[in-house]
């Protein structure tokens, strides 16, 4: 039985988001705003099909995928770089590899108790975000 990510999740803490944004080349002004945000994620999971909407007072981002099926990701409103993404299961974790201009880019989601974790990776930087059920 894979983990159940369904639900509405609010950011409660984050580590090294600044480092991740720097690795992505996000400009100073945008980073100053982005690091103050408390985004909300709404995840819908039906078998191996997922939608993840991340919303905030500043920008929103939506992604839709099926496990194991590569898709074009535009990262619109984030760094706007296109990449080819694929999400797979690693036991109970969802692992996304984002192949493109940036090396070692991707993310991992997992649930621990009532918390949703998101590890964001780019080049040598790793940021961890923790969300709680709304
Ligand atoms: C861009 C980099 C902040 C910073 C400026 C905009 C959308 C997995 C995945 C969904 C993400 C999180 C994106 C963080 C990139 C910041 C606007 C923040 C709100 O989540 O849940 O594909 O990629």
Explain the overall architecture:
It is a single chain. By secondary structure, the chain is mainly beta. Helix content is 10%, strand content 53%. It is globular, with a radius of gyration of 14 Å. 1,3-dihydroxypropan-2-yl hexadecanoate binds at residues 21, 24, 26, 30, 34, 37, 39, 41, 52, 54, 56, 58-61, 63, 78-79, 107, 118.
Work out the helix count: 2
Question: How are the strands of the largest sheet arranged?
Answer: 4-3-2-1-10-9-8-7-6-5
**Which cofactor or ligand species appear?**
1,3-dihydroxypropan-2-yl hexadecanoate
Q: Given the helix and strand composition, which structural class is it?
A: mainly beta
The CATH topology turns out to be Lipocalin
Distance between the termini: 24 Å
Q: How many strands?
A: 10
Portion in helices: 10-25%
What's the shape?
A: globular
InterPro entries: Calycin, Fatty_acid-bd, ILBP, Lipocln_cytosolic_FA-bd_dom
Family: Belongs to the calycin superfamily. Fatty-acid binding protein (FABP) family.
GO molecular function: lipid binding
Domain Cytosolic fatty-acid binding proteins: 7-24
